[in-house]
Records
---
Amino acid sequence: MRYQNILFDLDGTLTDPREGITRSVQYALAQLDIHEPDLTQLEHFIGPPLLQCFMQTYDLSEARAWDAVNHYRDRFKVTGLYENRVFDGVDPLLARLAQQGRTLYIATSKPTVFAREIARHFGFDRHFRHIYGSELDGTRTHKVELIAHLLAEEGLDPADTLMIGDRKHDLIGASQNGLHAAGVGYGFGSREELMAEAPTYYFATLGELDRAFG
C-alpha cells in the first residue's frame, strides 16, 4: 500500500485492552449499584466513546453516565491502563513501516493522557510522530472530529493517509474525512460491522495487514 501517513486506532488494533477496560467498566457500574458479573457482556465498551456507551447500554442520563465515566477512570488510571497487552507482531510491523519512511500516528477515542501512558509503558511510543486522543471533558471522543483535528494539526493530505481500525467508528471517521480505511478483523468489531461501512481494505489477521505493506 502506497500511503505515506498511517493512522492507527489503539484499542483492538495495536493492543488487547479487554481485561483493563471490562474490569474498569464493571467497577464503575458497581459504584452505581449496577452489578454485571460477566465481563464478556462488557466487551462492547471497547472502542466506542464511553459516555455514549454507558448512556445507551444502561439508559443513563448524561449526568449519571458522566458519574460512571469518572468512576471508570478512577480505576483505569491506576490499574486498568496496565491490564493490557500488545498484539503479537505489532512492534515489528511498526518498526518496518517506520523504516519504509512512513509517518505513523495514533488516533484513539481514549483520552490522550491515557493513550500516551499506554504507548510509553508498552514501549511502542517511539514509532509514532504524535498520539492523538480525546480530552477528559469529552472533546474529540468521536472519530470524525478526532481525525479532522489530526489532519488539520499535521497538515496531512487525506489522499495520502490511511486509517486502520477494528470498529465501525474508525471507518466512519476515515470516510467522512476523505481517507481510505482498513478494517482489521482481529480486534473487537465483527466482520459484519466492518464490512457494512465498505472499507477500502479488510484484513482478517495482523499477518494479512503486515503483508499488505510489502
---
Amino acid sequence: MNKYIGHLKKHFEDNRDNEKAIPMKKYMKDHFEFLGIPSPIRIDLTKQFFKEYGIPEGKDLHTIINLLWELPEREYQYIALSILDKKKKQLSETDIPFLEDLITNKSWWDTIDAIAPNYLGLILKKNPTIVETYVNKWLSSDNIWLNRTAILFQLKYKKDTNKELLFNIISKLAHSNEFFIRKAIGWALREYSKTDPVAVTVFIEENNDQLSPLSKREGMKVINKKKKEAGM
C-alpha cells in the first residue's frame, strides 16, 4: 500500500463510528459505505493529517487522489477533494480528463457539485478558448453527471457568467426527465438571478413550457423572496 494512503487510512480508521455510518449511508441512498465521521470532525482530522504529512505534489497528486477514489468509504473521496482544493490554483487544461474521470466514477451529486464549479469552472475561466469544446462534449454525453457539469461549471462566475451560453445549455437540457438535471438547472438559474434577476425572469417566462416546475421554482426562489420582502 502507498505509504501516504496507509498513514491516512490509519488516521481516519481510528475515528470510525459504525453507528453514525448507518444514517450517513442512508442519506446517500446506500450508494456508498461510510466511516461514520461527521463533517466537522472529518475536516479537523484532515487538517491535522495535512499538517503532519503534507499535501501530495506533482505526479503524486493524481496518484493519491485516484487511490482515495478507489476506497469504499465516501469520506476518502471528500479528503481527495480537500487535496484538490489545496491545489486548485495549479490545475490546468491538462487536468480536465483526470477531473472528468472523477466525475464519471463513483458519481453522485456531492462530488460533482464540488468538481464542476470549483475546479473545472476555474480551469475554463482561465482558458476561455476551450470552453465550447468541453461544453459540447459534456452536452452530447449520455452521462447525466457530465450534463450536470455543463450546467454548473459557471456557478461561481457571477458577473463573469456567459449568460447566453448558460441559457443555451439549459435550453438543450430542459427536456430531460432526470431529477439531477432539473435540479441543477434551477440551481444555476437561482445563482445567476443574484447577479441578473431580470435576465433570469425573462428566460424563465420565455421558456415556461420547456422548463420543469422544479427548475422554475428553484430558479425563481431568490427573486420571489425579494419580491415578497419588498411587499410586491
---
Amino acid sequence: WDHYVVSLGHRSLTIVNRALAKEAKEFTYTDLSPGRKYTANVTTISGDLSNWTSIVGHTVPAQVMSLNVANQGTTNSLFTNWIRPKGDVDSYQVLVIHENVVIKNETVPSDTNKYHFQSLKPGGLYSVVVTTISGGISSRQVIAEGRTVPSSVSGVTVNNSGRSDYLSVSWLPAAGDVDSYMVKLSHGGRTVHVLTIAKSTSECSFNTLTPGRLYDVTITTKSGKYENQSFGQERTGKQ
C-alpha cells in the first residue's frame, strides 16, 4: 500500500481528514468536544484501490462548574445549582451524602441545572455530588457541602422556684443535628448572662438575679454557622 487516510466525523460532519505515511501506526485526535460520540475511519490506499475500517469512540464528558448548595433558610431542604459544562450531556447524576451514607440518588435531565432536596435532617451537614453522564461515560465528580438550618427547641419552661434571685430554664431537645445551645438571659434589651450548653443537656439555671425583675430568655440552637431560636420569659420572686 502507498499510505493511509484517517478521518474523524461526528454525525454527518467530517472534522479531521489527513493522509499518513504507510509507516504510521497511530494517530491522536485533539481539541474534540467533551462527551461527544465520534466515528474514526482509517483508509488504506494502494494505487487506485482502497479499503477502510471504522470504529466508534466517545470522549469523556466535562464536569459541571460552579456547583452551589444553599438551604435558603430552611431546616429540611437544600437547593443546588451548577453551570452546564461544555460539550454533550445526556444527564446528570446527583447524590446527597450524610455521614458517609448516600441518602439521595437522582438522575437529572440535561436541560436542568438545579435540584431541590427535601425531607432532610435539620442542622445536618450534607455533601452534594454531581456527575455529568454522556454515552454511558461519567465525568469527574464535583462535590460541594451544604448544611440545613437547625431546628429550634420546644417546650421552653422558665421557673423561679419561689426564689427571688434565681431562674431555672429547661427545654425539649431540638430535632436533628445540634452542635450546642446558647442560653441568653436579658432584661430591658441588655444581656445579663450567656451560657453555652452541651447538646446533651436541656436545662440550666441563673443565680444572683435581681428580685421581682422580668427576664427574657433566648435559647439558640447552633449547627455549623447556622442557628435557630426559641424564647421564654419569667419574673424572679419578690423578697
---
Amino acid sequence: YHERIRHQFILLENPEKKGRIALLHAAQVEKMKKAKEWRRLGVIGRNEVVEKGMWKLKKEQERWDLFIPLRRLWLGYMSELLGLASPPASGMPSSAGMHAKLVKADFHGSIMTVRRSNKPALIGLSGIVVHETENAFRVVTRTNKSKLIPKHGSVFAFAVPLYSTLDTPSSSSPAAGPSSSQSSKTSNTVLEAPHIEFELYGNQFQFRSAERASKKFKPKETIEL
C-alpha cells in the first residue's frame, strides 16, 4: 500500500473510448477533406484517369521517335541518380551500389527487353517504357507498336549508361545537320555506347513506381522460371 497506492492517482473507471461508428465517421470526414483539397489543387484520382482514358495512346502517338526525348531524359535521370562519372573517367562503377537505387527508380523512358518468359511469344520483345502499372509495362517498339507486357512470369533486361550523359552535347544543336538529327532519333540509345546491363525479375517487381519509392526491399533468393 505504501509503495504502490499511497499518494497515487487511481482511475476508478475506464477512460472514454470512441465507438466504432464514431471512428468510421471521423475517417469519412477526413477522407472528404482530403478529396476537397485535391479538387482545389486540380489533382485527379486513378479511377478518374482511367475513365477519361488519359493513359491510352492514340494510334498516331504509337511512334518510337516520339518517345526518344523521354528516353534521353531517363538517361540523364540515371546519370544523376547513380552519380555516374564523365566519359574520360577510368574504371567501372560498382554495380552492387546501384541495386538499392535501381529498385526504387522510375523506369518511364527506359528500354525494357523480355529476356525470359513463361509466354514464348513475349521473348525478345523490346521497347521504350511509356507507362508502368503494378502488374505490367506498356512499351512502344521500334516498329511503332504499343505492347502491354505482364510482369508476372517474365525476366526483363535493361541497360544504364556506363558514363554520365548529362554533359553529352545535344544532337539538336546548330552544328548538327538534319541528317544527323534524324539518325540520332532512331539509333542514339544507350545500347550503342558503353553500358551496364541488369536483369529485372517481374515476379518480385509487382509494385507501382510510386509505391517502390517508399518500400524497403529485403534481399531474398529468386526462383528461376
